């Protein structure tokens, strides 16, 4: 099984966490390595990553990849809880982090890296930051009393939470204003699989446009 990825990519973090949780054997191909970009685009011409190639199968989209891993390469970590209601909550929180947190973050980041002379969208950035603040409030209330994002078990939701919250904390900080989120992030960053992902990305983190906020 091969993972096409980059260590600074937020969505690649999301897939690396379950791979590390279950010690799943895989080969990694980084998109900056010679020839890998062409190979990746031939497999997934839409040009988004990560993707996984497992034999003759090509699996894309992080939530789908994680469910695929749970079915075809299972281990002690269960990304999707067995209980149907708990599974729905894990999937819901996964969507909240990807769409309500990572989505507006991308708006702010893309504005930051927009080429000189390109049209600017300060109104769109302000809207995205305001939406992020509302998303924090929603998630702060929803995770109250929980150990992990969707309940007492580490799940798909936590795989999505780490990259979303880590990067957005650089743009719209939340640790002082949202104590539940702050405590949750402390637990998340201490988990061995997450700590490994964060350690591996450090040589690349200076390339993130808001990296100075973490210093």
At a glance:
With 215 residues, this protein is of the alpha+beta class. It has helices at residues 10-21, 36-43, 62-72, 84-112, 122-142, 156-171, 179-190, 192-201; strands spanning 2-5, 27-30, 51-54, 57-60. The chain folds into two domains: 2-72, Glutaredoxin (3-Layer(aba) Sandwich), CATH 3.40.30; 84-214, Glutathione S-transferase Yfyf (Class Pi), Chain A, domain 2, CATH 1.20.1050.10.
Notes on the structure:
- With 215 residues, the chain is an alpha+beta fold.
- The chain folds into two domains: 2-72, Glutaredoxin, CATH 3.40.30; 84-214, Up-down Bundle (Glutathione S-transferase Yfyf (Class Pi), Chain A, domain 2), CATH 1.20.1050.
- 55% of the residues lie in helices and 7% in strands.
- It contains eight helices and four strands.
- The protein has a four-stranded mixed β-sheet, with helices on both faces.
- Helix 1 runs antiparallel to helix 6 (156-171), helix 1 packs across helix 8 (192-201) and helix 4 packs parallel to helix 6 (156-171).
- The mean pLDDT is 95.
Give a quick set of tags describing it.
single chain; 215 residues; alpha+beta; Glutaredoxin; Glutathione S-transferase Yfyf (Class Pi), Chain A, domain 2; 2 domains; 4-stranded mixed sheet; 8 helices; 4 strands; 55% helix; 7% strand
Q: How many beta-strand segments? A: 4
H-E order: EHEHEEHHHHHH
Q: Within the largest sheet, what's the order of strands?
A: 2-1-3-4
Number of domains: 2
Strand content: 5-15%
| Helix/strand class | alpha+beta
Question: Which of globular, elongated, flat, extended, rod-shaped describes the shape?
Answer: globular
Q: CATH top level of the largest domain?
A: Mainly Alpha
Contiguous runs where pLDDT drops below 50 for at least 5 residues: none
CATH architecture annotation name of the largest domain: Up-down Bundle
Question: How large, in whole angstroms, is the Cα Rg?
Answer: 17 Å
Continuous helix count: 8
């Amino acid at each position: 099984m091969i993972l096409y990825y980059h260590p600074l990519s937020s969505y690649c973090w999301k897939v690396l966490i379950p791979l590390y949780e279950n010690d799943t054997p895989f080969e990694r191909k980084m998109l900056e390595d010679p020839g890998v970009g062409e190979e990746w685009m031939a497999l997934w011409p839409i040009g988004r990553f990560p993707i996984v190639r497992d034999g003759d199968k090509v699996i894309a989209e992080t939530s789908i990849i994680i469910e695929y891993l749970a079915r075809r390469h299972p281990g002690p970590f269960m990304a999707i809880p067995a209980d149907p209601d708990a599974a729905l909550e894990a999937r819901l929180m996964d969507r909240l982090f990807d769409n309500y947190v990572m989505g507006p973050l991308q708006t702010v980041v893309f504005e930051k890296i927009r080429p000189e002379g390109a049209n600017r969208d300060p109104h769109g950035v302000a809207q995205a930051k305001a939406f992020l603040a509302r998303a924090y409030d929603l998630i702060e209330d929803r995770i109250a009393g929980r150990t992990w994002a969707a309940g007492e078990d580490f799940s798909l939701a936590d795989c999505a939470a780490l990259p979303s919250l880590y990067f957005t904390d650089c743009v719209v900080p939340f640790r002082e204003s949202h104590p539940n989120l702050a405590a949750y992030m402390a637990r998340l960053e201490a988990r061995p699989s997450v700590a490994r992902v964060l350690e591996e990305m450090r040589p690349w983190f200076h390339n993130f446009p808001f990296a100075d906020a973490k210093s």
